[in-house]
Amino acid sequence: MTTKISEGPKVETRREQPYVAIPLEVEILDWNQVRGLIDEVYRWLKHHKIEPVGEPFYRYWVIGGIEEEFNLEVGVPIERMVSGDEHVITGFIPGGNYATAKHKGHPDYLEDSLYALEQWAVDEGLELDKRYEGDTEIWNGRFEFYLDKPGTGRLEEMTIEIAFLLMRDDAA
């Protein structure tokens, strides 16, 4: 395994943050559908005269594979909640504690960093906020934030922040 974690892992607390996104279900072989959606969300924001307040992200609800579909949203944080439409939805990045790390390098090698962060959380005794419906694992907060503006720089030099929402500690 070639982990490309350049910073972290660590736990950090984040505030709830509204966003707009395009939801989709896609198999890995059709991943090209996902790549252009960041630009589409930015065009929607510009058309509605809404300024982004953070970096674009992928929010994964269900992690797919070769034969299973990924259920995800491609989104951008905004200042306050707005109304979506038939194509663009609105939501909130949940507030709470997150296990985070920064991946430096080509997104094709992100899987190793995702695994390393998840393993670190397990080793630290942290419980990731996810549930199961039958055999399907559903994440309540699994994000990849693309810290480099789309289309700038080389893919080998990208910085992607990974953030996994942790279960709330009712005793805290």
Automatic annotation (TrEMBL):
SUPFAM superfamilies: Probable bacterial effector-binding domain. Pfam families: GyrI-like. Residues 7-167 form the AraC effector-binding domain. Signal peptide: none annotated. It comes from the Bacteria. Gene3D superfamilies: Regulatory factor, effector binding domain (3.20.80.10). This is AraC family transcriptional regulator.
